[in-house]
Amino acid sequence: MKKILFAFIILCGLNVNAQQLPQFTQFMNNTSLYNPSMMSMHEKTIITAGGRWQMLGFGSEPRTAFINGQTRIKRKSGYSINPALRISEENSGNDTVRKLKLAHYAGGQMLFDSYGAFNRTSINGCYSVGVNLNEDWKLLAGLKVGYSNFGFDMTKAQVAGNVDQEYDAYVANGTKRNSFDLGAGFTLVTKRFFLGFAANQFTKTAFDLNTSNSYFDQRMHWNLLTGYTYNIPGIVELQGMILMKKMAPSPLSIELAMKASLPNNVWVGMHFRNRSSLGFMAGFLINESFQLGYSIELNTNRLISFNNGGHELILSYQFGN
């Protein structure tokens, strides 16, 4: 148990910088997976599905599948008039107190993540609200409520030696665990720039639903995501993003991504994750609603000798205004 399972976890940790939550090469196309407030950055209803395969050829490779959706909650607006109120002149509405204009969004996420003998299925409900601070700046806030099922597949584990009391005690107390957790985030955004900060799993194991001793150590994940868009009309739109992630006691993880969108509905880009990998990505708009994206990722650390890199595929559909 110690030599097999723990060694695999350590090797995976080297590749993903000890992150418990799934990570994605094409995070530029799925920012709300990291920060729920960023749903308010998009006006349209969007549904995105994708899959990610890491460290192919390594054996029992980490694999992730997800579906992520969001929509704006539209409400009818108008003046409220009390017919019993007697007035001596017509109300033009100019003296009406201006209310804050809020934009509300709702969404959901489902993720399945497997790594070696361990797997996790998560279902999240998300809410986001955006308010205009002035003509240029907008403040977004978001909340995520999630449920996760953690599992351990004994058929994929090998025990070192004939007897391992630690392993026997572990499986004797059950191989599954269920838990609720919360996440929240804030984002400042302008037409071309945004800066967001979020915390995920900040309730840790406080809302575990099981009483067994099987332990899946959920830890708080912090992330800061910022980006800038530069547009050359009729030629190219350049978008760059920086994603910084921290989960104690692991070191800070930094990801850089650059994407160039061309007039022929094709986009290309690069991705770099410090101490881990280099990726290349490309995609195109199938029509006004469908977008397809693909990326390949190669390790830049010592794991490059043991695997053939990873792949990620996403398909998104958007509709409405």
Strand-helix topology:
Layout: H1 5-16, E1 45-53, E2 63-73, E3 102-115, E4 118-132, E5 138-152, H2 165-172, E6 176-189, E7 193-200, E8 207-208, E9 221-232, E10 236-246, E11 253-261, E12 266-273, E13 277-285, E14 290-299, E15 310-319
Antiparallel strand pairs: 1-2, 1-15, 2-3, 3-4, 4-5, 5-6, 6-7, 6-8, 7-9, 9-10, 10-11, 11-12, 12-13, 13-14, 14-15
Account of the protein in words:
With 321 residues, this protein is mainly beta. It has a single domain (5-73, 101-319), classed as Porin, CATH 2.40.160. The chain is built from 2 helices and 15 strands. Strands 1-2-3-4-5-6-7-9-10-11-12-13-14-15 form a 14-stranded antiparallel β-barrel. The longest helix is centred in the first third of the chain and has 12 residues, at 5-16. 31% of the residues are buried.
Q: What characteristics describe this protein?
A:
14-stranded antiparallel beta barrel, 321 residues, 15 strands, Porin, mainly beta
Give the terminus-to-terminus CA distance.
Answer: 54 Å
As laid out across the biggest beta sheet, the strand order is 1-2-3-4-5-6-7-9-10-11-12-13-14-15
Q: What is the succession of H and E elements?
A: HEEEEEHEEEEEEEEEE
CATH architecture: Beta Barrel
- For the record, the CATH class is Mainly Beta
Largest sheet: 14 strands, antiparallel, barrel
Number of helices: 2
* Helical content class: under 10%
User: What structural class do you assign from the helix and strand content?
Assistant: mainly beta
Number of domains: 1
Look up the CATH topology: Porin
List how many beta strands DSSP finds. 15
Ranges where pLDDT stays below 50 over 5 or more residues in a row are: 1-17, 85-98
Q: Cα-atom Rg, whole angstroms?
A: 23 Å
Categorize the overall geometry: globular
CATH H-tier superfamily: monomeric porin ompg
In terms of DSSP E residues, the strand content is over 45%
